[in-house]
Write a structure and sequence with these properties.
Elements (H helix, E strand, L loop, with lengths): L7 H17 L8 E5 L4 E5 L13 E5 L4 E3 L8 H10 L5 E5 L2 H8 L19 E2 L8 H11 L4 E4 L3 E6 L2 H22 L9 H11 L2 H13 L3
Parallel strand pairs: 6-7
Antiparallel strand pairs: 1-2, 1-5, 2-3, 3-4, 5-8, 7-8
Helix pairs in contact: 1-5, 2-4, 3-5, 5-7
């Protein structure tokens, strides 16, 4: 289902569920934010002050692509520039997750490139890295990140965090999970040896078999069931 067929009310619920699931998965902590494009001019995003572990649809505000508050009971996070910059550069982007996940951040801290060691994680490979730990809290930094990301579904920010981009909230959420799980497996394998990396043929097969809306939905449902 495309985001254009989802109402603003449903999108707010999806975003609040997404954030709570990411918090429970230890991918988002007291920071981090998720957004969805309402249309070409408006974006839904969680307010900066909300508790990520208990966010509700009331904690989702509406902003324009310059970050001006249109509707909501709180202001967007300082890194709203990250989302708006990517939306300006990527018309295909309908949802964005930005988090500070530890395993993938460990890789960027030591200059270890993200390798395709896990089938689902291989969907994001290669993952470009923004060579700066600075917060994406201004337009020039947002433009740097968008340029680094290019047409890819994910990027890392050195010693900072990660961003994933999807055609809907489900996709952006699932890709964030795949990214971190792959980074975890890569990190752990490096403790005992050199991990096996998927070949070009194996990468193509993974993308053909695993990049499907039904499998993304299955992963979303797995985490959603844990919300209770």
């Amino acid at each position: 289902m495309s985001e254009s067929t989802v109402s603003a009310t449903e999108l707010k619920q999806q975003l609040s569920d997404c954030i709570r699931m990411l918090e429970r998965a230890d991918i988002i902590d007291y920071n981090g934010h998720c957004s969805a494009r309402l249309d070409e001019e408006r974006v839904l995003i969680n307010v900066g002050s909300c508790q990520r572990s208990s966010v509700t649809p009331d904690d989702i505000c509406t902003i324009d692509l310059d970050g001006r508050l249109i509707e909501g009971r709180g202001n967007p996070p300082l890194e709203f520039h990250l989302h708006c910059g990517i939306y300006r550069a990527r018309p295909d982007a309908r949802a964005i997750v930005h988090a500070h996940p530890k395993w993938s951040t460990f890789l960027s801290m030591v200059g270890e490139s993200y390798k395709p060691v896990y089938a689902q994680g291989s969907l994001l490979y290669p993952v470009p890295v923004l060579d700066s730990p600075n917060s994406i809290n201004n337009r020039p930094m947002a433009e740097r990140l968008a340029a680094t990301l290019g047409a890819r579904p994910a990027a890392l920010m050195k010693s900072h965090g990660a961003v994933t981009v999807g055609r809907n909230v489900v996709e952006a959420f699932v890709l964030a999970n795949y990214l971190e799980e792959n980074a975890y497996r890569q990190y752990m394998a490096l403790q005992i040896g050199k991990p096996y990396c998927f070949s070009d043929e194996e990468l193509a097969l993974c993308r053909e078999k695993l990049w499907t809306a039904s499998l993304f939905k299955r992963t979303w449902d797995h985490f959603h069931a844990k919300l209770g």
